Amino acid sequence: MEDDELCYTILNDTALKIVNVSKDVIIGKPFKQLAGSLLPQAFVDHVSARYRSCINSKKTIEYIEKVETIRTFWFQTTLYPIADSQGDVSMLVGTATDITELKIVEEKLEKIRNFWKVWLIILCAVCIFLI
After folding, report:
1. Angle at CA 70, nearest 5°, toward 45 and 67?
2. pTM of this structure
3. 90 close to 80: Cβ distance less than 8 angstroms
4. What is the CATH number of the domain that holds 32?
5. Could you read off the pLDDT tens digit of each residue along the chain, which spans 131 residues?
């Protein structure tokens, strides 16, 4: 599968909302044609590289990433390569779970954790000073 063959054959409504385009505009179009006018070049390059990695390795890959389109999203994505009878990858099936809310909570917890670390350091310094 060459880069000019990379295209979406199916996208669910949630994915279409994220990339902010309609089905008829994106389905079946080579990824290279989507860059610039429909989707940011950096986004197309990044996604193409992920897809290419899965195709080349012929193995399932999973990753978490931050995607910035109409707003910031976090996804846990899994790509599954589907091989033809010769063992060549002819298709990818991908699943992406929106974990944005989880990441927001993690960031808040990290801020709270850092706040208490600072207070603990201050408290230790005061204790040492008093001793």
Report:
1. 45
2. 0.73
3. no
4. 3.30.450.20
5. 565 678 888 887 777 777 777 888 888 888 888 888 777 888 888 888 999 999 999 999 999 988 877 788 898 999 999 999 999 999 999 988 889 999 999 989 999 988 888 888 888 877 877 76
Domain hosting residue 42, numbered range? 3-98
34 within 8 A of 44, measured Cβ to Cβ = yes
d(CA 12, CA 59): 24
Query: CA-to-CA distance for 7 and 32, rounded, in angstroms?
Result: 9
Q: Are residues 12 and 45 in the same domain?
A: yes
How many residues are there in the chain? 131
Q: In this structure, how many other beta carbons lie within 10 angstroms of the beta carbon of residue 100?
A: 15
